[in-house]
Amino acid sequence: MASTLFKRLAKATTVSFGGQTKSTFGAIAAVTGGISYLYCYSSPNLAHLDEVKVEGSPKVALNPDKWVEFKLQDTARVSHNTHLFRFSFDPAAKLGLDIASCIITRAPIGQDAEGKTKYVVRPYTPISDPDSKGYFDLLIKVYPEGKMSQHFATLKSGDVVEVKGPIEKLRYSPNMKKHIGMIAGGTGHYSNASSN
Ligand SMILES: Cc1cc2nc3c(=O)[nH]c(=O)nc-3n(C[C@H](O)[C@H](O)[C@H](O)COP(=O)(O)OP(=O)(O)OC[C@H]3O[C@@H](n4cnc5c(N)ncnc54)[C@H](O)[C@@H]3O)c2cc1C
């Protein structure tokens, strides 16, 4: 059940996802540089998926103000250091991520001097179609000593990741510009791919 975007961007690399063979774009796997490192501390404002609110239509899973837990449904190895992660949520809801936006994820990495949970926070750009219902896909390069990507690498089906968003970078509306030129490098490949 690959998303439209997943199919559209499909290239040579064949991966096994959910027991079925699927294609994905391994070329986008090269992700480096220009990355802001964000850390924050434990927060009570954690939302759970069964609390997804319907505020008008369509129903969305993301909440820009609260950390929402998303369950890992499946993973697929795309290259020696890049993995595809599919997270699931209410099948009647969309993720709620617009074109040219990203999400932030967080994972606990111990405690600070006051005993509060310390988190590593990193942004990611889902590669699934924004209109997909019930799931989103992340393509993540795993760094040998990468705090968050190593955390992703240890996840198993059924584990949860806390996500907040969308983090809007540009509010795009159809035909807002006559011509659009895109130049991408490093992490920019993800945003570029999802905007195509
Ligand atoms: C808008 C945006 C969207 C993004 N989307 C994606 C995406 O879709 N997919 C994706 O894969 N990435 C994406 N990124 C990059 C992502 O946010 C992270 O920066 C990336 O996953 C690395 O984070 P990390 O915590 O694993 O690595 P970090 O812990 O931040 O480490 C970064 C680098 O430093 C090295 N390093 C860390 N600690 C040490 C040490 N003690 N000694 C030597 N070297 C060390 C690591 O090996 C790695 O090479 C995006 C970034 C942005 C800004």
Automatic annotation (TrEMBL):
Stored Pfam families: FAD_binding_6
Cofactor: FAD
Localization per Swiss-Prot or TrEMBL: Mitochondrion
Protein's UniProt keywords contain Transmembrane helix: no
GO cellular component: mitochondrion
Binding site for FAD: 122-124, 139, 141, 147-149
Principal location class: mitochondrion
Domain FAD-binding FR-type: 65-173
Superkingdom field: Eukaryota
CDD domains, alphabetized: cyt_b5_reduct_like
PROSITE patterns (UniProt xref): FAD_FR (PS51384)
Entry similarity comment: Belongs to the flavoprotein pyridine nucleotide cytochrome reductase family.
Protein name: cytochrome-b5 reductase
